[in-house]
Every structure is written in structure tokens, then in C-alpha cells.
Amino acid sequence: MTVGDVIAELSGGRIRPAYLLAGAEPLLRDDVLASIEAAVLGAGPRDFNLDRLDVARSSPGRLEEALDSLPVLADRRLVILRESEGRGARLDAAWTGAIESFLDRAGASSPAVLVVVVGKVDRRSRWVKAFRDPALLVDCDPPKGGRALTRFLTDEARRQGVELRSEAASLLAERVGPQLLLLRQEVEKAALLAGAGNPIERAHVEMSVAAVADEPIWDLTDAIGRGETAIAIGLLARMLGHGAAAPAILGALASHFRKLVRVGHGESVAGPPFVVRKLEQQAKRYPTRRLIACLRAIHRTDVELKGASIMRPDRALEQLVLVLAS
């Protein structure tokens, strides 16, 4: 089931006893998880009815204890189990055994709701297959291809309460690419431009969104990855001069470096083979500590672009590129 389908189901009042949120796109996982939390816990007390467990810092016994506890002043309690990112602790046989045990006895009216959040799973595994009705496996992989991106945009516009014309959605997907957080922000911008109660037309997207998809950004990220600071600064200036929006460039850089983190930790990323090869080559140049520093620099620049600094957007991006390419 897709993320949009699950959120719609939750809005309609159906809460399942267990969910497996599996996929490489954090935004989708976080969206579903937020909807599940709101549906299960509502306005009730969270201190006694919410357990957040991490595989690296907890144990299967603690999971079983949390699932066997009764809710306090509420109909249900929520237990969230996350697998560690990167090369951290994984779900082993003890963990999956505890999960399967709960799924075997949990019914539609179970007082405990289990949510397991993982970046990647083998869907042939017995414990994964155990997430069958009334439990649910939710696909949280990033959309691939224009049609999937357009479908994401349609769901996102509906979530924001605006109407997005199909021509506008296609242009957004073409100009921004598979950068979901940036696409979400661009829908918000285009909606403001269209005005309250009006649909987002292609013309609104043309005015509000600059073209910064994967292909143009590769020249910049290649120069950054090779440490060619002067070339990278020149490419950045050219993109800005051609009308590319600073937040769009920042979003593309953030997406690129998140992919480098995943590749550096042995995870797979979606994309054509030549793109994956480039990511693998660049990941070798960035040790983990440097990648973390780069992501922190990207976050600081994001805060600056949102008004926390008097620095002009172009200067903020220049400073970022200097850090990333150094």
C-alpha cells in the first residue's frame, strides 16, 4: 500500500495493529509515522502510551514488555521500533521473532499498535511476510520515474488542501526531480502564488520554480567531489545567473550528500547505473566524519536561507560550496 493510501485510511478511522514502514525515503516514513501517531494517540497522554525503541539501544525483551503493557486513559498505546541507520545494529532473529510473536496474536482491536521503521528489507523474509492483513507493509521507497513523481505531487497537493493541475505537476517533476522535500516546498510556494482557493496552473510553476533536476546539478557536484573549488564556484554562479533559486540548489545538494551517506554505508540508491557509479566514486572521497560535517554545513545554510542570517542567498551558497569542496 502506498503512503497516500495509508494516510487516507487512517483519516477514515481505520487503525491497524502493526505497520512496517520500509523504504529509503525518510520523508515518506516520517509522514506515515506522524499520521499513525496522530490517529493512535490523539490528544491523550503520551508519557504512558508511547514507547520509542532503537534496535541499537534496546532489546527484544523490552519490545515484548512495551507491547504487553496496557494503555493508560486511552484506547491504544503506540510502540515504535527503529532499525539503526547506516552500519548500526540490525534486526536479527531475536528481534524478528518477537515481532512475529506479536503479529500472530494481534487482532484488529489490539490495545498496542506496533510500528517498525526500516530503510531496507528483504521482502521474501518470513517476518516481513507476516505483515499481512490486518497488519500492513507500507512502501516508503522514493518514487521512480515521472509518473510516480506526479502521483506523489498529486497526493502532496491534496494533503496541503490545494488543487494541482496535471500540467503543473508534470513540470514540477521535470524541473525539480525526485527531491521530495523540495517538491513539497515548491507546491507551497506555487499555492501562495496562485492565491487561496485557486488551482496551481503550469504558469504558476513556471514563475516560481527554477529548473534544478539531477542532470544540471551533476556538473556542480562533480566539481565539488573532485575538490575543484574554483570550478564549483563558477558553476554555482552560472546556475544562479540563469535563474536557479537558491533553495532549489540547496535542496539538490542536500539530496546528493544524503545519497553519498547511504552509498558510503553500503546501502543502495535508485538511479541509472552511471549515476550510481558516480556516487560510489564520490563516496570514496568522503569519510564518514567529513560527510557529517558537510550535512551540518548544509543544515546551517538552510537556516540562513530561511532568514536567520543577513547574508545574501548567493553568498551563503558560495560559503557552503567552499566547505563542501574543501
CATH topology of the largest domain: Rossmann fold
Give the number of DSSP strands.
5
Number of helices: 15
CATH superfamily of the largest domain: P-loop containing nucleotide triphosphate hydrolases
Largest pleated sheet:
5 strands, parallel
| Percentage of β-strand residues | 5-15%
Q: What does the radius of gyration come to?
A: 22 Å
Topology summary:
Layout: H1 3-11, E1 18-22, H2 26-41, E2 50-54, H3 60-68, E3 77-82, H4 93-105, E4 112-118, H5 126-129, E5 136-139, H6 145-160, H7 166-176, H8 180-194, H9 202-208, H10 214-225, H11 229-241, H12 246-264, H13 273-284, H14 288-308, H15 313-325
Parallel strand pairs: 1-4, 1-5, 2-3, 3-4
Helix pairs in contact: 1-2, 3-4, 6-7, 6-8, 7-9, 8-9, 10-11, 11-15, 12-13, 12-14, 14-15
Question: How does this model look, in words?
Answer:
The protein has 326 residues and is an alpha/beta fold. It has 3 domains: 3-139, 3-Layer(aba) Sandwich (Rossmann fold), CATH 3.40.50; 145-209, Orthogonal Bundle (Helicase, Ruva Protein, domain 3), CATH 1.10.8.60; 213-326, Zinc Finger, Delta Prime, domain 3 (Up-down Bundle), CATH 1.20.272.10. Helix content is 58%, strand content 8%. The protein contains 15 helices and 5 strands. The chain has helices at residues 3-11, 26-41, 60-68, 93-105, 126-129, 145-160, 166-176, 180-194, 202-208, 214-225, 229-241, 246-264, 273-284, 288-308, 313-325, and strands at 18-22, 50-54, 77-82, 112-118, 136-139. A 5-stranded parallel β-sheet has the order 2-3-4-1-5, sandwiched between helices. Helix 3 packs parallel to helix 4 (93-105), helix 8 (180-194) packs across helix 9 and helix 14 runs antiparallel to helix 15 (313-325). The longest helix has 21 residues, at 288-308. The termini are far apart. The model has no long low-confidence stretch (mean pLDDT 87).
